[in-house]
Design a protein that fits this description.
Elements (H helix, E strand, L loop, with lengths): L6 H18 L7 E2 L2 E2 L22 E6 L8 E7 L7 E6 L6 E4 L1 E7 L2 E10 L7 E8 L2 E2 L3 E4 L6 E6 L9 H13 L5 E4 L10 H10 L8 E4 L17 H6 L15 E5 L2 E6 L3 H4 L6 H15 L4 E6 L4 E2 L1 E2 L8 E2 L1 H13 L3 E4 L5 E8 L2 E2 L5 E5 L11 E2 L6 E2 L8 E7 L2 E7 L5 E8 L1
Parallel strand pairs: 3-14, 12-13, 13-14, 16-17, 17-21, 21-24
Antiparallel strand pairs: 1-2, 3-4, 4-8, 5-6, 5-9, 7-8, 9-10, 9-11, 12-27, 15-16, 18-20, 19-25, 22-23, 22-24, 22-26, 27-28, 28-29
Helix pairs in contact: 2-3, 6-7
Length: about 450
């Protein structure tokens, strides 16, 4: 092109001109769904720009992240070694030729003396219950088209993974995660319960963790929970969770000091509140995390119109005795004393925790004791190879305990308007526990 106007720029200008002409000729906006444009009703319009270029874009660890409302939006992220100026994401209804473009933010990320660029795009407005596909773009390069689907408010299944930290190059994590996904092809999204890696500053561990979900996160969104190991430096001191916050663009919470440390999201008829339990690690570096959550959580739980309320938190609410430590008595942990009354008052249906690397189903607890009401409490177990055999003294509240000596496990949640079903499986698919809640 003459006068320095690139072909890419020309095509964008041409596309804008065509849309302006269409508006001048009586083009009307498509209908709205809950205030969002109905992409399914959008007239097919061939954009001047085409997406038939090469598929050599460097895009590592492509991942989808949950949003507040997964019916109408989705976050897409990827990593690269170069800046990829002008990065963006094209998205369309599966099989359609018409597409939309979402710009991506591109930020340089440095940790553990390693540099990378993180690219993040928000795809919206989407239509509930539709199958879409998206393609990453930068300059004349792009990725293949990749699938995703929006929440339809219908019954769903999700996969829940407890602590995945490993000392074997995350081979155990890969096997547990990939086998669970294969056994549950209808899973809508994944939950990771914290301590994703053993050391939050270790670049190699994050690479290995993402590699364990190769081919999964590009098509299924993730809801990650922050664990204490996400706050550790290479010399095992504490720091702010730089890697976690950079690598996972989870929904905002409105906080100036602790943005995205805690959050909530909806899927189907379930409202999920993700509570941050890392006050011990973070308070000396940035005080106020607990106070903020004690103000936020009751408001968040009261505001939802969803039928079911599920809380996700890394550390557990109960205190376990330790063999060879007769001075350590079982009971309610300080975290439980703080949060369990909020759960009771707000009508929370289930509380999932992690951290102790053991699976325990405690049934329903209310006012700090077993009851026929109150939340169902499940300690989710371990999905890596870091285990604590023979460490814990069984708690009086434990109703189901994983077979001993303990191995890896994962969980599923089947959610419908009238029932929540939590199931725990060994890596080979053997069912070891099932807990049901009905309304």
């Amino acid at each position: 092109m003459k006068n320095g106007l690139s072909r890419r720029h020309f095509l964008k200008l041409a596309g804008s001109t065509l849309l302006s002409l269409a508006a001048g000729c009586g083009f009307t906006a498509p209908p709205a769904v809950n205030g969002k444009l109905d992409e399914a009703a959008r007239p097919v319009r061939k954009l001047a720009r085409t997406l038939t270029g090469d598929t050599t874009l460097e895009a590592r660890f492509i991942r989808q992240i949950v949003t507040h409302d997964n019916r109408v939006s989705r976050t897409v992220m990827w990593q690269s070694d170069d800046a990829q100026a002008g990065a963006e994401v094209a998205w369309r209804l599966a099989g359609n030729e018409d597409f939309s473009i979402a710009p991506a933010t591109s930020e340089r990320y440095t940790d553990d003396q390693q540099d990378a660029y993180l690219h993040t795009a928000l795809l919206e407005p989407l239509v509930p219950g539709k199958t879409y596909e998206y393609r990453l773009l930068a300059g004349e390069q792009g990725s293949d088209w990749l699938p995703f689907a929006t929440d339809s408010d219908a019954p769903f299944t999700c996969l829940i993974f407890p602590d995945s930290q490993c000392s074997d190059g995350y081979v155990t994590w890969r096997e547990v995660a990939q086998d669970a996904v294969r056994r549950n092809p209808n899973a809508a999204f994944l939950i990771s319960m914290g301590d994703l890696v053993d050391n939050g500053e270790d670049h190699n561990q994050w690479e290995q963790w993402f590699a364990g979900l190769d081919g999964v996160l590009s098509r299924l969104p993730l809801a990650p929970v922050m664990g204490n190991h996400e706050t550790y430096t290479l010399d095992w001191q504490t720091r702010l969770p730089l890697a976690f916050l950079s690598l996972f663009s989870v929904p905002e919470n409105g906080s100036a000091a602790f943005g995205r440390y805690y959050y909530s999201f909806d899927y189907g008829d379930v409202h999920f509140a993700v509570v941050n339990t890392q006050m011990n690690e973070i308070d000396d570096l940035r005080p106020g995390l607990l106070a903020e959550q004690l103000a936020w959580l009751p408001r968040d739980l009261a505001a939802t119109t969803k039928k079911w309320k599920v809380v996700l938190m890394h550390r557990d609410v109960l205190r376990y005795g330790i063999h060879k430590r007769p001075d350590r008595k079982p009971g309610i942990d300080n975290l439980g004393r703080t949060f369990m009354p909020i759960f009771d008052e707000a009508g929370v249906d289930a509380v999932l925790t992690a951290h102790l690397h053991t699976y325990r189903d405690r049934g329903r607890l209310y006012d700090f004791r077993p009851a026929d009401r109150g939340p169902l409490y499940i300690l989710t177990g371990v999905a890596g190879n870091v285990r604590y055999p023979g460490l814990w003294v069984d708690h009086d509240f434990d109703k189901v305990i994983a077979p001993q000596p303990e191995t890896d496990n994962y969980l599923t949640l089947d959610a419908s308007p009238n029932e929540l079903i939590f199931r725990c499986f060994l890596p080979d698919g053997t069912l070891i526990d099932e807990a049901r809640l009905r309304k």
